[in-house]
Write a structure and sequence with these properties.
With 830 residues, the protein is of the alpha+beta class. The chain is built from 22 helices and 40 strands.
Length: 830
């Protein structure tokens, strides 16, 4: 058993580390004697690295030497640019530096203990790529045994250490970058997480942006002659200094009614367009600040209400709100949340360290000897050789007392007795008759391991020699009964041969973790050994059933021809898909193919296409996604009016478009990308609420496209088939409980696509569109090479070679998570 269990809250703006030895929690302070450490890195021109407070304080003055907020880019290919020293690091590499630094706070006897085990927390909203990136950072930091857990679960663990009695409570976790909410029920020291939710990009950093954009920038424009570029480049010295000063002032408002956002000319060290030295002297009070952040707080309250409703509960069913995260130190925020939700507020845990503390408590509950770091069993037993019996007991409990019971495997000898002694206190049960069902209740004198010694006496009173006679019962703070899954995860499959794509759910949001399952699929096409083709399992997060491509692609598990040496996987072959989602939300899977007698293992899912998004160079991609989404919304609005969901979807898509039109900054692009995903979720909800009208619109568009543009190129058989499908689709319009319309409509689209791509002019048109924007590709050099080659074939009229170029372009095209592009779907629901 590990003697020390480490919990790390790897935060967007601040991080913390805590250890637990089975009895006591210790928060390890930074060199500045603070409980938390800024998640900041500074590298000087000689390559010397600083992290934490020193790096954070130096960053505004030398932005080209510093990296901040890299947690927001975990799981992407966005690089942290140290422009002053011509160095780029991945978000994982930056996070590894913070992890190594935090680990350095621990005493040497803990750091060098080979049995030390660490739990790192991640937001509940983190997707598969972000979780895998966090594990990669831990690997780079060489932390040894590591597991992940969701931040709200960690907060619950900490609350339960101080919680007395049974209750239902709500965790309101507003951090520097994300918002998580969890609803938990405690009964007899066992905690059930009923539901949780959150917002991916809502935190203290977003509060700082509002403060800067609405208070500081107008003041700067009034007092100095500044260009738009000077106020929009957030990685410039001026804006880094402004954000730094705004954040400090915001923190001061937690203790004071008013403050001043101030910087001297020497601190800013930037001149305006007239050569005047810039300074800051901006008064700020709580009323101004509260008014600014109200919209984001309202979003968090709305997400909380949604979580409560999802659990089928009312505010009066909840005893209290426990606040976690730096921004919740601001009392007016706590008061507003408590008032709006009509639930009393609680500040019984330190909001800055609760997550790290809870993570270290959870680390103790893990069996670190298992491959997947499963939780320790609550049941224990001690068998006694030769006596046909065993002692059964609860190995882990939060109670002050526990029971040890005798379970006979056969007939017990007469005249035997037993006794239980506490090794820790000297207490003894005295002798009892050795019989089936006999129960001894023991007291647990301390937190952590309580050790008891079993004695067995023969009829003459002699002590029976036992190979093992020790029982260990661990007194814990609490045990988590079920950790709910944050996201719904599905495999995108065909509903039948030649059918339409659909979601086959593996994990539903709210399912208790860990969860295992097995699905039977079939191959939609054959695959020979050594073939360059693949059978592809596309995995997505989300519940958007039409179109499935609006969900976030999180991984492609491929079985390629090169993965097996001989044989063929025939069309229709059975594919046995076994999967498990761990406590942390990390998904693993294996696929067995009986026809070739082989099994293929995924490891952890990771989507190269999704991971290759570089938000520092994605404004074109985001703009295109926003415009496409807005066009879809406008088309639906022609048929549907007064939809609240459509209006919200439009607002989010317009917000994303506005961001992409005004800045190309990586953090803003990331935020815009998330706005598009949220817009598409709302669009899917609007579709469900107005299904008949939207089906009519989709059918009208397909028929018009065929009649006006494609019919003249179609074969007679294609025209007849399209007309038959159109008639069938019209008959299905009103059958709202069936997906038959969607299946028929999909076949109509396939016919249109087949006609379109058969035309030489269509191939040229497609190539021209693909070659217009290099932002949509992962390898720019390869993209440019292919475009040059494609233009040559286009101009020569070599359409067959141009088709090959198009295929190569698609192979390096980014799948943004809100794109219609996806690996070919060739798996059929079994």
């Amino acid at each position: 058993m590990s003697k020390y269990f480490i919990g790390i809250d790897l935060g967007t703006t601040n991080s913390a580390i805590c250890s637990y030895d089975g009895t006591a929690l210790t928060v390890w302070k930074s060199p500045e004697q603070n409980d938390v450490t800024p998640s900041a890195i500074f590298i000087d021109k000689r390559g010397n690295k600083r992290f934490g407070q020193r790096a954070y304080d130096a960053a505004p003055g030398s932005p080209g030497n510093a990296a901040l907020l890299f947690k927001r880019f975990m799981g992407t290919s966005t690089m942290m640019n140290f422009s002053a020293i011509n160095l780029k690091l991945t978000p994982e590499e930056c996070s590894a530096e913070i992890l190594k630094g935090l680990f350095g706070y621990l005493p040497e006897e803990i750091r060098k203990n080979p049995e030390v085990a660490t739990v790192i927390t991640v937001p509940a909203a983190f997707n598969q790529m972000q979780k895998n990136a966090t594990l990669k950072a831990a690997e780079l930091a060489n932390l040894g045994k590591v597991s992940l857990m969701q931040e709200p679960v960690a907060a619950v663990m900490r609350v339960m250490q101080v919680e007395k009695g049974d209750s239902t409570f709500l965790i309101f976790d507003l951090g520097g970058g994300t918002f998580d909410v969890a609803l938990a029920e405690s009964v007899g020291g066992r905690v059930n997480l009923i539901a949780h939710g959150g917002i991916a990009m809502c935190g203290g950093r977003d509060f700082d942006r509002l403060l800067t954009n609405n208070i500081v920038k107008p003041w700067l424009r009034e007092h100095f002659n500044l260009s738009d570029e000077m106020l929009q480049k957030y990685d410039s010295r001026l804006m880094r200094m402004v954000l730094w000063a705004a954040e400090k002032a915001k923190i001061e408002l937690s203790a004071n009614e008013d403050t001043v956002i101030s910087l001297s000319e020497t601190e800013v060290n930037v001149k305006d367009l007239d050569g005047e030295e810039i300074y800051l002297d901006v008064p700020l009070n709580r009323e101004q600040y509260s008014g600014l952040v109200d919209s984001l707080v309202d979003d968090a309250i709305a997400a909380t209400r949604e979580t409560i409703e999802k659990a089928g509960m009312q505010p009066q069913d909840i005893a209290k709100i426990v606040f976690v995260g730096g921004p919740t130190n601001y009392k007016p925020l706590r008061d507003k949340v408590s008032f709006e939700l009509a639930i009393p507020a609680s500040i019984e845990v330190n909001p800055m360290t609760a997550v790290a503390e809870g993570a270290s408590l959870f680390a103790e509950s893990i069996d670190w000897n298992t491959v997947d770091h499963a939780r320790k069993s609550n049941k224990g037993q001690l068998g006694l050789d030769g006596l046909n019996m065993q002692f059964n007991y609860i190995a882990r409990t939060s109670d002050n007392r526990a029971k040890i019971a005798i379970k006979a495997q056969g007939v017990l000898p007469e005249g035997f007795e037993f006794q239980v002694d506490s090794v820790d206190t000297g207490w003894t049960s005295g002798k009892h008759v050795l019989k089936n069902g006999e129960i001894i209740e023991v007291g647990l004198a301390k937190m952590g391991d309580n050790i008891f010694k079993i004695f067995v006496f023969d009829p003459s009173g002699g002590v029976v020699k036992l190979e093992n006679n020790l029982i260990t019962i661990c007194k814990t703070t609490a045990s988590i009964v079920g950790i709910p899954a944050s996201h719904t995860v599905s495999v995108v499959v065909l509903d039948k041969f030649g059918g339409s794509s659909t979601l086959d759910y593996l994990i539903k949001a709210g399912d208790a973790l860990p969860k295992k399952g097995k699905k039977i699929y079939r191959a939609a096409e054959s695959l020979r050994a050594d073939s360059k083709k693949a059978l592809t399992f596309n995995l997505v997060e989300g519940e958007i059933e039409e179109p499935v491509t609006d969900n976030r692609l999180i991984g492609c598990f491929k079985i390629e021809g090169k993965d097996f040496d001989e044989g063929i996987i025939p069309t229709g072959a059975e594919l046995v898909f076994e999967y498990e989602m761990l406590d942390s939300g990390v998904l693993k899977a294996t696929v067995s193919v009986p026809s070739i007698g082989s099994t293929f293992t995924s490891g952890n899912f990771y989507s190269p296409q999704e991971g290759q998004i570089d938000f520092a160079n994605s404004s074109g991609l985001v703009k295109n996604e926003a415009e496409t989404t807005l066009k879809r919304i406008e088309e639906i609005e022609q048929k549907v009016s007064g939809s609240e969901k459509l209006e919200r979807a439009r607002m989010k898509a317009e917000s994303a478009l506005n961001i992409s039109n005004t800045t190309d900054e990586a953090e803003s692009m990331n935020r815009a990308h998330n706005e598009i995903l949220e817009s598409k979720k709302l669009l899917a909800q609007a579709r469900k609420e107005n299904l008949k009208e939207i089906r009519e619109l989709e059918l009208e568009d397909s028929v018009a496209a065929f009649e006006e543009g494609l019919k003249k190129y179609a074969r007679e058989s294609e025209i007849a088939m399209f007309n038959n499908l159109t008639a069938t689709a019209r008959r299905c319009l009103n059958n709202l409980g069936s997906k038959e319309f969607e299946s028929i409509h999909s076949q109509m689209i396939d016919i249109e696509a087949g006609i379109y791509y058969r035309q030489d002019w269509a191939i040229v048109d497609l190539f021209n569109r693909l070659s217009e924007h290099e932002y949509g590709y992962t390898d720019l050099n390869k993209f440019r090479e292919l475009v040059t080659m494609g233009k040559k074939y286009r101009d020569e009229g070599n359409i067959e070679e141009l088709r090959k170029v198009i295929g190569a372009l698609f192979s390096i095209k980014i799948v943004s998570g809100s794109s219609t592009e996806m690996e070919i779907i060739n798996i059929i629901r079994g």
